[in-house]
Amino acid sequence: MTLISIGRLSDETGTKIPTIRYYESIGLLPEPPRTASNRRLYDPHAVARLRFIRHARDLGFEIEAIRDFLGLMDHPGGPCHHAHGLVRQHLEAIDAKIAQLQAMRHAIERVSPNCPYNRVEQCPAIEVLSDHALCPDGCP
Amino acid sequence: MTLISIGRLSDETGTKIPTIRYYESIGLLPEPPRTASNRRLYDPHAVARLRFIRHARDLGFEIEAIRDFLGLMDHPGGPCHHAHGLVRQHLEAIDAKIAQLQAMRHAIERVSPNCPYNRVEQCPAIEVLSDHALCPDGCP
DNA sequence: GCTACAATCTCCAGCGACTAGAGGATCAAG
DNA sequence: CTTGATCCTCTAGTCGCTGGAGATTGTAGC
């Protein structure tokens, strides 16, 4: 069982050191054992857990959702309906975000990249932002 | 020239009142005139400016970018190269976000919506989050 | 006029998810 | 034995809002 320092954990998971300590402070990562000189020591299980957290964060899950996942994983005999619900909800949220971004893209795309004018008053880049009719979805 | 209250401005633009005051505090909206009893009064120009701000925020522009846009619009005779640069940069950022979300979606999609198991230990929803090989792009 | 109640004012504190810095202790290498 | 990297705790800052406390004002009904 190889124990590693916080710096090593940081390198291996691509997580900044303060972020690791932050996850510990909010209870996502358990308090690790320490050396005689008070330095944190992490085992492979902690590495996996942090990697899971980072992966889920990269996928856009919120901390509280991840806390739920970790809670489920800490009770491996239990039912997993809740996990499915979380994932499904998140998929829907992702689809909504993608749709919104694509609408955005189309709205912004209308801006001619080669503006024939050179003055702000006639600039389509400013216009597309000002023109209410070009809103992707119904804005107030 | 119809002057409206902050509540009215809030309703017309779909912006919460504290948000309007926040925009004023950071200098995005100018300090409006007040009634004798110190209440803010907004003219149609302020409504348009706030709508512009909200629209740009909905499109994902950061406050500082919006400040730039507004600065450009306040000098309507000047050149607009900068506005184009901002919009182009933003388009690139949107494309990157869309790509990332789609990668996410594919990763999460692998989770079977009808899990044949009913226990967390065999649940593919948990697995897809744990399995490092399913990462959308090279994670550490 | 009086009483409710809604709207507004200022100021301050908090959210999420980190990130950065100060100031001090400890480790590993030369 | 010194140097520099790494670690510790603690505090405060980031962004873009959001909400509450407590005081004042505007409006409507009686």
From TrEMBL, chains A, B:
Does Transferase show up as a keyword for this record?
no
Known SMART domains for this protein? HTH_MERR
The answer to whether the entry has keyword DNA-binding is yes
Superkingdom classification of source: Bacteria
Which parts of the sequence belong to the HTH merR-type domain? 3-72
Q: Pfam families annotated for this entry?
A: MerR, MerR-DNA-bind
Protein keywords = DNA-binding, Transcription, Transcription regulation
Q: Which residues cross the membrane?
A: none
Name used for this protein in its record: MerR family transcriptional regulator
Organism field = Pararhodospirillum oryzae
